[in-house]
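Sample intake sheet
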Amino acid sequence: MYYLKNHCLAISLFLWMLWFHLDVKAQGNALHFDGINDYVTVPQKSTVVSGSFTVMAWVKPEQATKAMHIFSTRETAEFGFDMQLTGGNKVHGDIGNGTSFITTSADAHYNYTVGRWLHVAYVVWPTGYKIYVNGNLTGSGTFNGTPLLLNSTHKIVIGKNASESTYFQGCIDEVKVFSAVLGEQEIISEMLNSIVSVPASLVTHYDFNQSGTSLTDLSGNGYDGTVTNFALTGTTSNWVESYAMVVPSPVSYTHLTLPTIEP
């Protein structure tokens, strides 16, 4: 009985090691924002994105007591769109039509953790919005209007907003913008993959897998960004390893040895 009991224990330990031992590797780069003056700005273009759109990003906040902008098109001209993390417990958005705000409380209550990656996605259309966190519908609301994301006076800025001291502190990765409403399964697919699965509506895609002072737009639409005020040295205010989309993979059984239990 003693031998059988310990043999079963050894097998259980082996199975636990097989299924739960994680081989975690960085999935490329992200940008670390210092929360003081780091941001990325993208020049205006004549392209208009309004009515329906989806904006998403992976973020790892390092501050939970202040509002921090992830993405904004309220620079230069107000009444565009933005998404923020605020107070450790809220995803906040403002949605405008270019001349006034449609809503300044496009919010979802979510207790995010400092130092942990999360994925935020806003889906906006002329009668409402949905907010997804880590692929789960977390908030929604209704309104009437024509939301404006981009035009010749509204440009993309990552990590801040001009009129507020809301510089992001932490890491940002995999920012994607679409000129269409994405469904839940599409959002989950985009969240877990750097390769875009719905390219027809893609406006811009930043995978952050580079270095230097430029943030490259992979969409082919020319929305390249300029990395501004970053130290570009060390592990803060610089390009850093990203674990945003890490999906742990089990180690092959050939790398594990079954313990020997003597009777």
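Comment: Residues 29-240 form a domain with the Jelly Rolls fold (CATH 2.60.120.200). The radius of gyration is 22 Å.
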